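Colleagues,

For the teaching module next term, I've prepared a clean inverse folding example: a structure given as tokens, and then the sequence designed for it. I'd like students to try predicting residues themselves before seeing the answer, so please don't circulate the second half yet.
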């Protein structure tokens, strides 16, 4: 059963039956609406999200079976139960063919109709749980799934176990590729909400309009293509956890809407008027400096304080080099099993090269590197020859000397700004002005790259690389 009171629509042209059923289900704890005919019921379904529609079959103008067909189009997730005083085996069979979730014959016992509705709700919840299990591919995100024995990671583990039992909002920060979603899943798996859904969404992967409909759902006809009522991810994660990855990519107007949800603990579907209560723990993540974005006016201060209740910073791989060996062997087992010749390990020399490297792409870069090496290695052990040239020739002392602090000092902020600008232009030049590919090289979203182009006032300069390519 859902954590909020189920909403039921009772449809019957007999006033005495409507009143009886309304009284019964209100006493049971349901939120109840009634309609005296199919047309009124259809209007209600178009404006409100119902868990169950309990409808008589024989009604003037729009019958119960016709209402069932319309309901399946408008709100396919709603459970529909048909009632009739003229029941038969054949009629029941026909109702199920049309998509009814159950069928009951009048006159019925009150306990019987209550049980039929309760069973329908339990089947609905079971469907949701199966869908969630499929979506997560049975990944429960346990703490053991995070690899690391270094002191920084032990501190992260301890913090996860400390805050998991609370319902407080968490903000996970860290560079791209450090494993922020694994931390979010671990928080959920260690919490009392572990048996309920964990839903993840990358806020930078959607336009503002699509993100709103994904998070909050929508009503039929709310926009072109909205052919039926659809629940959003906040509703889908009710009782569990919703993970908002790359929250820093949200537009200011979407930030306002998210702030309202966090304050009111309710959502309103796109095109709808009903306030739907939600109980989802929010865990957000970003690789951007939200406090700096607040100062720049690109992230709301009130939302920042709402999501930054409990901060967790996941350290980059270069700050926990002692974990590289364990991580590399973990990925070796994962990708080595796909080979015709099993891999028995990674040579000590190859491991030394890996431990010497800074991994700007963090754990994700290491995983991709081991996957590539496992695919190319002809022997049973990964050797240095399978590693990229950039790792074999990597010399951290040269990089350090390139950034020696001058005797006269520097303006650090201006210096870092120029480095940032330089790398952006290099990435655009290398990708011939393709912003999507340039963003991938820089380990950021396209939206973040465009923000930086505007910040450094080089959007026009960036277009030159594309024009040069066209001329060539």
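(Answer key — instructors only)
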């Amino acid at each position: 059963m859902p954590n909020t009171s189920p909403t039921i629509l009772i449809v019957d042209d007999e006033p005495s039956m409507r009143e009886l059923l309304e009284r019964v289900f209100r006493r049971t704890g349901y939120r109840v609406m009634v309609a005296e005919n199919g047309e009124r019921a259809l209007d209600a379904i178009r404006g409100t999200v119902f868990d169950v529609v309990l409808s008589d079959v024989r009604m003037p103008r729009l019958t119960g079976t016709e209402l069932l067909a319309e309901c399946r189009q408008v709100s396919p997730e709603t459970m529909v139960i048909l009632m009739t005083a003229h029941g038969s085996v054949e009629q029941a069979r026909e109702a199920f063919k049309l998509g009814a979730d159950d069928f009951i014959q009048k006159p019925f016992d009150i306990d019987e109709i209550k049980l039929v509705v309760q069973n329908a709700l339990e089947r609905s919840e079971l469907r949701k749980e199966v869908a969630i299990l499929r979506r997560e591919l049975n990944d429960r995100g346990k703490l053991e799934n995070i690899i690391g024995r270094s002191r920084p990671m032990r501190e992260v583990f301890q913090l996860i176990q400390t805050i998991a039992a609370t319902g407080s909002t968490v903000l996970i920060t860290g560079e791209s590729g450090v494993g922020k979603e694994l931390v979010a899943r671990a928080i959920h798996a260690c919490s009392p909400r572990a048996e309920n859904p964990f839903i993840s969404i990358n806020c930078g992967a959607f336009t503002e309009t699509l993100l709103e409909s994904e998070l909050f759902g929508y009503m039929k006809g709310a926009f072109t293509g909205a052919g039926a009522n659809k629940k959003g991810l906040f509703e889908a994660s009710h009782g569990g956890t919703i993970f908002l990855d790359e929250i820093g990519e949200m537009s200011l107007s979407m930030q306002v809407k998210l702030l309202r949800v966090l304050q009111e603990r309710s959502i309103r579907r796109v095109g709808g008027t009903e306030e739907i209560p939600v109980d989802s723990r929010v865990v957000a993540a970003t690789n951007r400096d939200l406090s700096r974005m607040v100062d720049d006016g690109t992230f709301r201060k009130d939302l920042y304080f709402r999501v930054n209740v409990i901060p967790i910073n996941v350290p980059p791989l270069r700050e926990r080099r002692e974990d590289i060996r364990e991580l590399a062997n973990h990925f070796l087992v994962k990708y080595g099993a796909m080979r015709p010749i099993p891999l028995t390990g990674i040579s000590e020399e190859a491991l030394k090269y890996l431990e010497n490297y800074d991994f700007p792409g963090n754990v994700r870069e290491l995983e991709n590197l081991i996957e590539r090496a496992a695919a190319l290695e002809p022997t049973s052990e990964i050797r240095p020859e399978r590693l990229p040239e950039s790792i074999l020739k990597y010399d951290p002392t040269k990089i350090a000397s390139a950034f020696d602090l001058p005797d006269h000092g520097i303006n650090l902020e201006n210096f870092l700004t120029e480095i940032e600008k330089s790398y952006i232009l290099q990435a655009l030049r290398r990708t011939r002005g393709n912003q999507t590919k340039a963003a991938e090289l820089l380990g950021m979203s396209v939206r973040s790259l465009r923000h930086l182009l505007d910040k450094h006032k080089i959007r026009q300069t960036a277009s030159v690389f594309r024009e040069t390519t066209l001329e060539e």
